[in-house]
Design goal:
Mean pLDDT: 92
Strand content: 15-25%
Number of domains: 2
Largest sheet: 4 strands, mixed
Number of helices: 6
CATH topology of the largest domain: Spore Coat Polysaccharide Biosynthesis Protein SpsA, Chain A
Distance between the termini: 41 Å
Shape: globular
Strand order of the largest sheet: 3-5-4-6
CATH class of the largest domain: Alpha Beta
Order of helices and strands: EHEHEHEEHEHH
CATH architecture of the largest domain: Alpha-Beta Complex
Number of strands: 6
Structural class: alpha/beta
């Protein structure tokens, strides 16, 4: 088994209670901002002696087990960083061996920034191109596209 456990980081206590009830490790987000939250998660996983950190945002509706396998397989073979880009230049998934000096750079153009930081640090990297990892729900139009494919979904959270 490649995945030993799941952790969820959030400011939402009800979500953290729910994930704890499901057996995941709840991590309270202490500082604002995604990159700071992920650094908190990294430090917690290091304290738990994790070898690999796999970062998957919650807005990947087509994520499948094969995607996780595809992200972790290169790490098992010695690659230190595996990235899956989003169509707009972001990073939709990141697998990283621990410990690592790589600075998280999520946000606009994060895919190129993560790759650049890895090159500067001499971190081996591999890119995974996957349509199921590429589709994320960042904009109302993404939600509408998802609802077109799955009409039984609830209305958009934005109205």
């Amino acid at each position: 088994e490649l995945v030993a456990g799941v952790a969820v980081i959030s400011r939402d206590q009800s979500l953290l209670d729910e994930v704890a009830a499901q057996g995941a490790v709840p991590l309270r987000e202490l500082q604002p901002g995604l990159n700071q939250a992920l650094e908190t998660a990294r430090q917690e996983m290091l304290c738990r002696h994790a070898d690999v950190l796999l970062i998957l945002p919650a807005d990947l509706p087509f994520l499948a087990k094969r995607d996780i396998d595809q992200l972790l397989a290169p790490v098992q073979q010695g690659t230190q960083l595996v990235l899956a880009p989003s169509p707009d230049g972001g990073t939709n998934a990141l697998a990283l061996t621990l410990p690592s000096p790589l600075r998280f750079a999520f946000g606009p153009h994060s895919f190129a920034r993560h790759r650049q930081f890895a090159r500067q640090l001499g971190i081996s990297q591999q890119v995974i191109i996957s349509p199921t990892l590429a589709f994320d729900v960042d904009w109302p139009a993404d939600w509408e596209l998802l609802r077109t494919a799955f009409p039984d979904l609830a209305p958009s959270p934005t109205g």
